[in-house]
Amino acid sequence: MAITLVTKLAVALAFASPLAAAPFVSEISAGRAEAPVAELVELASGTMPYRAAGEFTRAGRPVTAPLARVGVTVPLAIMKHQVAAADYRRCVDAGACKPLAAAAGAEPDRPVVGVSWRDAEAYAAWFSRVTGERWRLPTDTEWAFVAGSRFSDDGDVVDADDPSRRALARYTREAALKDDGEERGVMPFGSFGTNEHGISDLAGNVWEWTATCYVRTALDDAGAAIAATTNCGVRIAEGRHRAYVTDFVRDARAGGCAAGVPPTHLGFRLVREQATWGSWLMARITAWRAG
Q: Quick one: which of 124, 86, 82 has its CA closest to 105?
């Protein structure tokens, strides 16, 4: 297969210094529409106590997810704020994102809400193209890591012989995490403060989509996983509490598509992938060719 001129240039420049490649990169970027600018917070790698999302059973009975110590093994760069309504609208105007329902409209300087997991994925793909970088939704583990003290542990300890008590305990816990102002609409950025990492509005009244699928896991007597069934038609949304929401749902309050107390608003923020110089250059070329 013949190698295109652009590909040859990319291969050559991947081994060059940034200064050597700067004129070429500037030429690629010239005349292109300016992409939305995302303020980032960068966190070093680390570990934390964490209960995996999903449903856990032992001998066919529901049990609390085991508490494990997990980690983020590489530095993580995540948006300080959720994606803004104005930025999502730019994706819609570019024909890369689905328009929002009229009832979901938010002020341009507030988080976009009324978006499904599929909408968030479409935005991440578009944002990656226009920036020449790779952006994606965080995993549930990553979201919990950056949330720090704002992350809500869902480890209810109840009678394993009575599933109804478990469901009631979950509902009671999640309902207690709501506040009287949640129905006041989408609040401006910064309304819920920042956490110890400097990340804004975690566990506010906007729940955030993650990349993590819903998993049913069977445990043995020692607590080790012996079988798992993954359902990626349902994704994990994090906010004041953890929620399980069907991936095409834009408003979990409008139907029975969320377990427990449904999220008030569905939005998202993105993680920027680390990239080598060569992969960054190829992404810039892809963005340029996409126009």
A: 86
147, two tokens: 């949330």
Q: What is the largest CA-CA distance in the chain?
A: 68
Distance between CA 215 and CA 264 in Å, rounded?
23
User: What is the rounded (10 degree) CA torsion for 52, 54, 59, 63?
Assistant: 70
| 268: pLDDT strictly greater than 80 | yes
Q: Is the pLDDT of residue 35 over 90?
A: no
- Residue pair 216/57 in contact (Cβ under 8 Å)? The answer is yes
Residue pair 184/265 in contact by the 8 Å Cβ criterion: no
The answer to whether 13 and 276 are in contact (CB under 8 A) is: no
Number of domains present in the structure of the chain: 1
The half-sphere exposure of 249 on its side-chain side, counting CA atoms within 13 A, is: 26
Summarize pLDDT for 179-215 with one digit per residue, the tens.
544 556 888 999 999 999 999 999 888 999 999 999 9
DSSP 100: P
Cβ proximity of 83 and 37 under 8 Å: no
Q: What is the mean pLDDT of the chain?
A: 78
Q: Is 8 exposed, middle or buried (CB count within 10 Å of its CB: 0-12, 13-18, 19+)?
A: exposed
Host domain of residue 191: 32-290
**CATH number of the structural domain spanning residue 246:** 3.90.1580
Q: The whole model's pTM is what?
A: 0.76
